[in-house]
Amino acid sequence: MPTLKKRLEVLQPVTMGQMIGLAKEFAVSVVDVVLAEAELQTGKSQEEILADVMEQYRHNLQAIEIGLKDGESILLGTVASQLGKIEGPKCFDDKFLDDVLLYTQAAQVGNHCIGLRPCAGTGDSCPYTGYIMAMMRAGYSEREVAEIAALFLKIGGLFRAGKVTTGCNMEGFGAGAPCIAAGTVALMKGTPEQMEKAMVLALSPTIGVPCTPRVLVPALCTTHIAGAVMIGMYSAKLLLRVDIDVNVPIDVMFAMASQVHVQSGKHLVPTVVDFMEPFFKRKPQVEDLVEQHVKDAEQAKIEQTLKNADAISQNFAKQTLPITNTLGEAVVGGSSQAVGSPTNAARIAHELAQGTIRKITVELYPELFARRAINIPGVLMGAAFGSSTADYEMYNVAVQKVREAGIEVNIVEGTEAYIQKITIETDQMTCWVDTLNRGGGRVHLRDASPSLEQAAEAAKRLGIVLA
User: Which is higher by pLDDT, 29 or 285?
Assistant: First the structure.
């Protein structure tokens, strides 16, 4: 592939998006691009490269064997050896999936016994190695195993560069899911387009999920690391079976993940520490070295954390309804928060309006403003016609009907978090509701004109839940 290599000489090292793009342009597999790049970077043959790739995994494969046999983790116990002793399926009837999960857990346990050679971190090395072991046990050829292993290292290496702070969102979970998706597409002979879409779908739910320091809490990491496998394999198999519009390029999703990762370390992890620190696993021999007054202070903090958690949970419990009346009215448009809540705010404003409507002004906070394609039809049908969130027929024609009625519409991007303010001007008066967005189609009503009391009464008549 001299032409491909000529392009790679200019581009390398390539991004995930370029990797996909080159595979499409030259009608080759993504693995072909990965190997061609490695040939240029190392001056070695493909056979030598693949041998080196598998050598990198040798220690990690040994960790799996230890985890399966008698390895014990301070956090995970003997979960892998226990699963391994079960006859037949461990968790799922899909044997390959079941094996990947088993070997991934074994790698985790082995990591705590003899360590793992890390990629973005030791976390994502677990699903990579678990997947490779499952391929080996399933009888795939050495070449096939090594090619998937190489693909993991190429993608994982990009996440390694992007991981600059604590958090599983760019490591075990965040790097693991798209790698497993890519490997599964490659294994099932999918196209580069399918691989890119699968990686995007797999990466998306991991963004902003700060694992660390929950890894210090017993058992929790098992579902993070297994989640990478589950999400990755599901994303791949879904894209291999259906044609779905995934329009975000993988490099854009990856870039966003890297930037959210930094913010997560600054703003999310401290909250995780506050609530999870009381449950961190301690080693008695280490604790013996800590002064008693420090341990007493920690114990006081633990007790306060538990009280805070209980108070928060109790507060939410008080806001719930009986299970016979929990679900709200149906919400067209795909989101009870992005569509349901602003639509219900508009319905309250409509209920307050008197006379012929001349103008509707909609102020939405940035996230809602960005999602205006789905919420403005709902807001307009609620403000102009009083239609409920379940009126899917009106939802589809609301914008057209508002235009036909000659109603002026002004959509404003607000700056205040969660704001959704709806103002209606008629030939007789002007009314408005100042609300904050809430999930489940609920509305937090802050102020209104002609009065807050009238708005609250209107919401009650309409059956809208005020948060």
Answer: 29
